[in-house]
Prior knowledge:
The protein is of the alpha+beta class. 32% of the residues lie in helices and 19% in strands. It has 3 domains: 91 residues; 108 residues, Immunoglobulin-like (Sandwich), CATH 2.60.40.420; 123 residues, Orthogonal Bundle (Cytochrome Bc1 Complex, Chain D, domain 2), CATH 1.10.760. It contains 8 helices and 12 strands. A hairpin with a 4-residue loop joins strand 6 and strand 7. Helix 1 runs antiparallel to helix 3. The longest helix is centred in the N-terminal third of the chain and has 32 residues. The chain is elongated, with a radius of gyration of 27 Å. It starts with 13 loop residues before the first helix and ends in a 50-residue tail after the last helix. It is a multi-pass membrane protein. Its cofactor is heme c. Belongs to the cytochrome c oxidase subunit 2 family. It holds the Pfam family COX2.
Amino acid sequence: MLAGLMPEQASELAPRVDAIFLGLTAISAFIVLLVVGLVVAFSIRFRRGSKANRDALPNLVSREFEIGWTAATLFVFVFIFWWAASAEIRAFVAPKDAIEVHVVAKQWMWKTQSANGVREINELHVPVGAPVRLILTSQDVIHAFYVPAFRLKRDALPGQQTEAWFKATKTGTFHLLCTEYCGTDHARMLGRIVVMEPEDYARWLSAQPEGDDLAHQGERLFTARGCAGCHAPGSAVHAPDLAGLWGRAVQLAGGRTVTADGAYIRDSILQPKRDVVAGYEPIMPSYAGLLSDGEIQELTAYIRALGSGSRSSRRLGEPPLSSRVPGGPEARSPALVPGAPVTDTPTPAGPATRP
Length: 355
């Protein structure tokens, strides 16, 4: 009976969210019935003109009763907090093998791009049973990425990146909505998530127009925007080497240490003077307004592809990335198809490093 009142469940997270919702509803209904029942019972028993002993109530509500009731309420509160928080924390931590999809919201559409370069507008095709990691940002105002069947909702914020992930459990087409009022045509900001069998998804993927993945696009942009002029090993400008930067601890002027992740790289591109690397002068110009969110994602993917501090990486003077990635620029990432062997094809996350 309750199933007909709830949206369809189509993700791994949906049953947990529904269980929490129904649990909270049941606890709330019990408390309401208890309070209403006591009010009605006391109103009848201790009504005006009643011969009931009115001194019995203070004796009934003893100190021990108050302590027990308060302790029980605290226990229920802590349990509900733990139960709900555990589901929310899971929703933020994507599996390491998740398909990475960048989502850019703008008035009034959703633009998605997978790590292998496939772009879509107001649509996202994914395979069933595979975790999908979403990296969201907005080009203008606050939007909210909401898929009712997945019980997934996450804000897309201008100038920031937020993340979410899901694993679809059934095939079909599911509504994608914006649930943050974002302007005149907010109600028309609609899309759809198409969940396919892995074999069908592989065929769909191979039928898409050939194109470079994010890392290869970022490599070209890195040169076109003049980044290599400062960050190349042979440059006369004293700027950090980006090879092996990803995931490494970076010592900043002032003594703080940060991890070189997507958020750090994005800030380095847009606000390079905020956190300056120790030993370097704050000479890098800001690219705020000069690079789109999509271009920042491409640059981040390229820097990530240069390697992390935990493994060997290509220096900027070596052969280009396209000559090192199996299949070249047009290669589709097998990691996007469940069951296919995983390669070292790079994936994106945020912007470039500061001087």
